[in-house]
Amino acid sequence: MRLMTAFSSQPWLASYADGVPATIDPPTQTLVEMLDVSVRRHRRRVALEFFGAETTYAELGDQVARAANALRKLGVRRGDRVALVLPNCPQHVVAFYAILRIGAIAIEHNPLYTERELRHQFEDHGAKVAIVWDKVAGTVVGFPRDVGVQTVVSVDVTRAMPLRIRVALRLPVKKARDSRTALTVGRAVAGAVAWSTLTDASRINRRVAGPELGDIAVLQYTSGTTGSPKGAILTHSNLRANASQGEAWVPGLRPGMEVFYGVLPMFHAYGLTLCLTFAMSMGARLVLFPKFDENLVLDAMRTTPATFLPAVPPIYDRLVTAATAKGVSLRGIRFAISGAMNLPIDTVTRWETTTGGLLVEGYGMTETSPVALGNPIGPSRRPGTVGVPFPSTDIRVIDPADPTVDRGIDEEGELLIRGPQVFSGYWNRPSETAEALLPGGWLRTGDIVRVSADGFVTIVDRIKELIITGGFNVAPSEVESVLLSHPSVADAAVVGLPSLSGGEDVIAVVVLAPGTTLELDDFRAWAKSHLASYKVPRRIEVVDELPRNIVGKVLRRVVRTNLLDG
What is this structure's pTM? Predict the structure, then answer.
């Protein structure tokens, strides 16, 4: 039996939570129109909160209109690219929607990137205007002329904080100086225009021709774990559809009454959709954090408790530990959505016991705006899987070597996804677009999965990270899971390195639990009792920590490079 035949009836629909539809209506609003609706419906409600400073939806709408007018005065027009290099802050939200309001394209960047990493992306997209955190504005100002940046707008995030905090940051004490230095350069940046000066001087102009549904809204760069980063083209329709799918997926959400915590970086696809679009579509209060700090989150929980928390597994673990130690209640967080990496069942148990709410895992990619699958919000959820397809989303599982051959139920193969949230291609990369998108709109994910008869998907591993040793395929995540069950191992990454005999050797890099030691020969013998001999690491290295991306996912590519260079 082939998967297409078995899944033609979409058996996963039987596992949907009550009230979740099989399909969503095609989007009729651009992201700009979506925000306008929330501004009209929730004018007096708080849209953004930043260290206690509140911005209502009416104020947000005015600020977006003012900033859009300022960008037009800088020469930004429909279809132009505008770079954003910002942490989570109110100015980020305003700038994002201001760019979209005039039909331009927002391009998100990680402000912690090195000069080389940022420059590579700027050379790729060619934005002439960049709105940049003042901490890194000097880097962008210093780009060579041929990179193409003509105007750099510098943002001091502390200007969005309450006056009492801004005053405290200027106190002549070390703690205040350190906090201020971490947030701002505290002065004008040579060669840049100050965001506050630009927007304060601009008038509100709502008579600007906006974008259409099919227009590009965002260029979102992929993490580059399988090569150099590429700009995924996401339209207004893609992103609006994914926000609608999210609204449909979580029954019981109350428009205008939810409190979302923005602990995920909004320059990442996960944070962008869950915070910049989904939260705003719901008329939610979005509490922003410039970076994840459990103490800041717990302080906010005392005054403005979250009801919805999208995050990654390490954040949930750290919050439970810190809240228990400090006696802070996490009750009231009804929904928590985890992504970007495997969600351990122990983490689910701890979180749900502590909060009384639900923690479920989902799956997505930058190329799917990003969410495509999720565990049902209810008793049918299945920890250990990434759930089932979202409304209006189809899946297939194919032979990675031959996309025309479908795999059967519970057979391993590459996951394909089709739905309204699937991107239209990579910026200026036609050959790579053709490799990623198959006829019929199917996206090749590069993930090896198994799918049960009722449609629940279990991730096995990335195709490009599979280790081929002695003719056998080894999934790094399987070996890592075993190694992590050893009491002396706190963290682990498994990669393949070229073998003298051809193929690859399985190599493990581990971080020891505090206060433990590891006898490597004994450890390999222990691993052999849990794994087939060809899966047992030929070599084991002990390190202090593993490289991770901004959302905490281990970068196996970097681990492998470090081993080769070392």
Answer: 0.86
What band does 2 get if pLDDT is binned at 50, 70 and 90? Answer: very low
What DSSP designation does 278 have?
Answer: I
> Which position has the token pair 């504005």?
137
Strand, coil or helix: 165? helix
Task: Please write the tens of the pLDDT for every residue from 306-355.
Answer: 999 999 888 999 999 999 999 999 999 999 999 877 788 899 999 999 99
Cα dihedral 44, 68, 183, 261, rounded to 10, equals: 40
pLDDT for 551: 79
Q: Where are the domains of the chain?
A: 6-30+212-446, 466-565
Select the CATH number that applies to the domain covering 466-565 from these four: 3.30.300.30, 3.30.420.10, 3.30.470.20, 1.20.1250.20: 3.30.300.30
SS (H, E, C) 394-448: EEEEEECCEEEEECCCCCCEEEEEECCCCCCCECCCHHHHHHHEECCCEEEEEEE
Q: Which of 86, 133, 128, 88 is nearest to 109 (CA)?
A: 86
Measured CA to CA, the distance from residue 465 to residue 456 in angstroms comes to: 23
320 within 8 A of 301, measured Cβ to Cβ: no
Note the CATH number of domain 6-30+212-446.
3.40.50.12780
Residue 3 binned pLDDT confidence (cut-offs 50, 70, 90): very low
Place of tokens 């089709």: 418
Q: Are 377 and 362 in contact (CB under 8 A)?
A: no
Distance CA 106, CA 97 (A): 9
Average pLDDT, the chain: 92
More confident residue, 225 or 281: 281
How distant is the alpha carbon of residue 50 from its chain centre?
A: 20
Nearest CA-CA partner of 53 in 180, 172, 165: 165
